[in-house]
Amino acid sequence: MPRSLPPAEAPGLRRRELSAALLGTLALPAAGQASEAPAGRNILRVVFEAAETGFDPARLSDRYSATITAHIFEALYGYDPLAMPVRPVPLTAAAMPEVSSDFRTWTVKVRPGIHFADDPAFKGQRRELVAQDYVYAYKRFADPATTSPGWSSLNDEGILGLDTLHERALAEKKPFDYDTPIEGLRALDRYTLQFRLAAPRPRFLATLSNSAAYGAVAREVVEAYGDDIPAHPVGTGPYRLKQWRRSSLIVLEPNPGFREMVYDAQPAADDALGQAWLAKFKGRRLPLNDGVEVSIIEEGQSRWLAFLSGQLDFVRVPPEFANYAAPTGTLAPNLVRQGIRAHKYVNADVTMSWFNMEDPVVGGYTPEKVALRRAIQLAYDIDREIRVVRRGQAVPAQAAMPPGTFGHDPAFRSDNSSHDPARAKALLDLYGYLDRDGDGWRERPDGQPLVLEMATQRSAIERQFDEIWQKSLTAVGLRVKFATAQWPENLKAARGGKLMMWSLGQTATEPDAQGALEYFYGPSVGQGNLARFRHEGFDRLYARMLSLPDGPERAALFLEASKIGLAFMPYRIHVHRVYTDLSQPWITGYRQPLFRNQVWQWVEVDGAQRAARGH
Q1: What pLDDT was estimated at residue 596?
Q2: How many H-runs (helices) and E-runs (strands) does the chain carry?
Q3: Residue 611: partners with Cβ closer than 8 Å, 6 or more residues away
C-alpha cells in the first residue's frame, strides 16, 4: 500500500570601486541605527570564486550556475532552511509524496495556483505550473540534443521508459519524442505526477528536492529561446534573472509573480542563532530582500578586501587570509568590533586531481600505468598543500565520500593521505620509468619522453597549487607543464576527454555520498566521470548501492568501491575543506547550509544600516 512520507522522515564590483578597496583605507564608519530602508536598497551582495557557465537546469556543469538556478527554479520539494539533520518539506508539492512499500512508485500532487515568472514566451498570459511541466523538465535530460551532463545521474534512478526514449533518439537520429507518454513519468491529471522506477530507490526524495537541476521548466520557454535558453531561465521561484554579464556579474530581482510564501523553519533546540532568526522572521513573506547581486572575483585577495571595504555582504575567507580573520582560532578583535559574524565548519566536500584514463601517457589499466599514477599520488606533498596553500584550513581526505554524508567513515585510512617520495621513486624504477639519458627526467618504459600536462587556472591560489605539483614531481624525476585557461573552458575540455590531468572539488548536494562515487562510474564518462574510468566491478557495486536502504550493508559497499578506486588511482583524492564564512552586521539570516544551495530568499538586508556605514 502507498504511504505518505512525512517531513520528519525524510551589484557587481565596478573596477574603480575595487581599486579603491585595494588602495584605500578599510576602516568602517560607526554603525547606524537599523531602520526600514527604501525599496531597492536592500540588495544582497555576494561573490562567486569562479565563473558560471549558464542557467539551463538540464545543462548544469558547475555549482556556481547551480546556485543561480536553485533560486529561479523550484523542484517539488525543498529543505527547511535551518533544520539539521536536513528536513525535506513540500515546495511546489501540496504534500509529501505517496511512496509504495518497495520504493518504486512515487506519486506527488502539485499545488494549484503556482505560476511561472512572466516572460514573452507566454504571449502576455499568466502561465500556471502543472504536472506536465515536471514531465517535460525530466525528459529534457534524456534528449541527446540537450547534451545534459546530468543525464547519467538521472538515468541511474531507473525511470521506466526514459532510457528507451533516449536510445531511440540516438539510433534514429530524429528529434526527441517529448509527447509519447512513458510508464515511469506521467502526469495522471493536471496536478498529479507519478514516477515509476525499475528498482527500489529509497533516496529518490533527494532527486525530487533538487531545485537547481530538477525544477519545473515550461516547454514554451525552451522552444522560444532554443540554443540561447541558458541565458533565459524562467521558473516559479522567488527570483528572476535581471542582468547577466558573463564571468563578471549576475543580478537577480524578486519575481513579481511569486506566490505568497512565508518564513518558517525548525532549527535545533540548541541552535540559539537559528532560534533567534525564527523568532524574528516567522510568518514574513519571502524573499526577505530586494534582490541579489553576484560578482565573480577569482582572486582571493580581491574578494577579501572587497568584503572588508563593505562591498560584499558575505565572504568565504580565502585560505591565505585565514590567519588574519581568526588568528587564534576565533574571530579577530577588529572584525568583532565591526559586528562581523563568523561561522566555521568542515564542509561536506572533497577536492581531487584526476587522470584521463584514455590518455596515452597517464591512462590505461596495465600495471605500469597504474604504477605511474600511484607514484604521482605518493609524490604529491599533501601536507604542504594544507599547511602552505590552505593555511591549515583543510583535513586530509582518505576517500571520495564527503564528511557528514552517509558512506563517509571517519575511521577509514588509505594512501590518499600519504606523501612518500621514496616509495614513488621505487615504483617508477620497478616499472621502467627511468632517466636513461641522465638529464634528470624520467622517460617512459619504451624510452619515449615522459611529460605530464596539467590544466590549471589563472588565479594566485592556483599558481600555488601548481608550485606544489612542480616541486613534488620534480623531486621524483617527473617533468610537468601547465596549460592555463578559465575554469569553464577547462571543464568543457575535461568533459570532452581533451585534458590529461586537472584538479577540482565536489560539494555534496544531499546527505548521501553516492554522488561523489559517480566520478568513478562508467556510464557517467563524459559527464560526472571526468577521469573516464571504467571498471565493471565498481559499476556493479554502484548499482547495488542505489537500491539498498541505508544500513551496514550499504556502508560496507562504499568502502569496497573506494578500494577499487584506490587500486587503479584514476583520482588522487586531496582534502576536505574547512571554511570560515563571514557576514556583515547589516545582514541577518545568512548561514550557508550543508547539502543545500538555496539560501538567499531567507536573508534580510538592512540597507539603512549599510548606508549609514558608508556602503
Answers
A1: 81
A2: 21, 22
A3: 32, 37, 41
Phi and psi, residue 505, nearest 5°: -125, 160
Burial of 422 (0-12, 13-18, 19+ CB in 10 A): exposed
Burial of residue 414 (CB within 10 Å: 0-12, 13-18, 19+) is middle
C-alpha cell at 313: 555582504
Q: pTM of the predicted model, to two decimals?
A: 0.83
* E-strand stretches of 149-263: 185-189, 192-196, 239-245, 249-254
- 459, pLDDT greater than 90: no
Please enumerate in sequence order all residues whose Cβ is within 8 A of that of 228, keeping only pairs 6 or more positions apart, or say none. none
Residue 517 CA from chain centroid, whole number: 14
In the predicted model, is pLDDT for residue 6 greater than 70?
no
Q: What is the pLDDT of residues 188-238, one digit of tens each?
A: 999 999 999 999 999 999 999 999 999 999 999 999 999 999 999 999 999
What's the whole-number mean pLDDT along residues 160-165? 97
Distance CA 107, CA 3 (A): 10
With b for 16 or more beta-carbon neighbours within 10 A and e for fewer, the 17-44 pattern comes to: ebeebeeeeeebeeeeeeeebeeeebbb
Neighbour count for residue 546 (Cβ, 10 Å): 18
CA 360 to chain centre: 30
Amino acid letter, 59: R
Dihedral sign for Cα 293, 315, 572, 555, please. Answer: negative
β-bridge mates for residue 79, sequence order = 88
Got the DSSP string for 27-75? PPPPPPPP-PPPTTS--EEEEESS------GGG--SHHHHHHHHHHS--
> What is the model's pLDDT at position 17?
34
* C-alpha cell belonging to residue 56: 539551463
List the grid coordinates of 60.
548544469
Report the chain's terminal Cα–Cα distance, integer Å. 59
